[in-house]
Structure formats: C-alpha cells, structure tokens
Amino acid sequence: MQGNQRFISGEVSHPRQDVEHRTEIATSQKPFAALFGCSDSRLAAEIIFDVGLGDLFVVRNAGQVIAETILGSLEYSVEVLEVPLIVVLGHDGCGAIQATMEAESGTLETTGEFIDDLVSRIRPTVVSAKLAGTDSIDEITDLHVKDTVAELVNRSKLIDSAVRSGKLAVVGATYQLALGKVTPLVTVGKVN
Asked: Where are the alpha helices (DSSP H) in the chain?
C-alpha cells in the first residue's frame, strides 16, 4: 500500500529495477505477494504498487475469473514460493463485468465461444447483484472481487489450509483507473 501511495502521488521510487538486481534474482524468486488481477492493460501490478522485479507473482485474466490454471498458479505461489499474501484485484469500469451485464440483458454481441465462457463465470455475481437491486458496474465489480476471494479459498484446499494455519492472507481489492488508488474490500486470514 505504501507503493500505491507513491504511485498515486507521482513520487515513485521504481525499486529493484536495476541491472544489478535483475542479475541477482535471475536464478531464483522470492516474491512477497501473489497478485491475481484483471488483464486490463491499464492495471499493471508492478507499476501501480511501485515495486520491482521479483516482488510480485502476477497471474491475470479478463475479469479475474477463477480457472484451474489460475488455481494452480496461485497454489504454486503459496506452496513453492511461500508467499504470505494473495491479492485479488479488480478495477472500476471493468470490460468483463460490462460484457456480462450486457449478456444478462441480451445486448452482448460477440462470436467468441470463450468470451461466452468468461461471461458465464461472472454471471452468478451479476444475477445476484440485480436481484439485490444493484446495477452499478463498480458495485458489481466489488461483489465479483469478494465472490472471487471466496471461490479461491473454497476451491483450493491448499490455500484454505494456509489461511487457516495463519501462513496466508487473501485480500480482495479494487483499483480506480483515474485515481490510481487501490482500496481493500475484504480480507480472509491475517495480514502480517
């Protein structure tokens, strides 16, 4: 969060991005966190948190949708790299959330079968939000982040066990594109 504050203020330090550090970490990695976020081009984790090479283990896809490859990557970060923190990061104005809202209203016009798969995985959150009277894309994104955190912990026995044993925390957060600000929404486990 300190790095995000530097990014917001424009006083970034660009730590651990020099040739010496790159050479030093070439043979192994020891990131301090894993980040699972949306693949939106405006959400580059190392930049918005003002961290360096080897600091974050980053996994991304559109709409930060849980899939087996995502679970495997995050389990690897916990079991092999021993990260103590996973951040699930959504953002305002998310195109994947918008596409799902359009699909739900019958106005989505795509031909990609895998886009439909992506949308189908976000649909339960959109449907629940609409039933609760919420139709704001950003409020639905917040709910999707919370649902994703819950799904991550529920589907991965390894991650659930690491949380229960106190070795891991999972934080769901959102990023505001114009402000550059990350806001935590939900925490599972204890953040050290």
From this structure: 2-9, 19-24, 45-48, 68-79, 95-105, 113-131, 137-155, 157-164
Q: Residue 188 carries which DSSP code?
A: E
* Strand ranges across the sheet with 85-91: 56-61, 33-38, 85-91, 169-176, 181-188
Closest C-alpha to 58, from 79, 24, 83: 83
Residue 40, both tokens: 């939106």
Q: State how far the Cα of 126 lies from the Cα of 120, in Å rounded to an integer.
A: 10
Which portions of the chain are predicted below pLDDT 50?
Answer: none
Q: Which residues of 158-173 are buried (b: 16+ CB within 10 A; e: fewer)?
A: ebbebbeeeebbbbbb
Among the listed residues 14, 83, 81, 82, the one whose alpha carbon sits nearest the alpha carbon of residue 53? 14
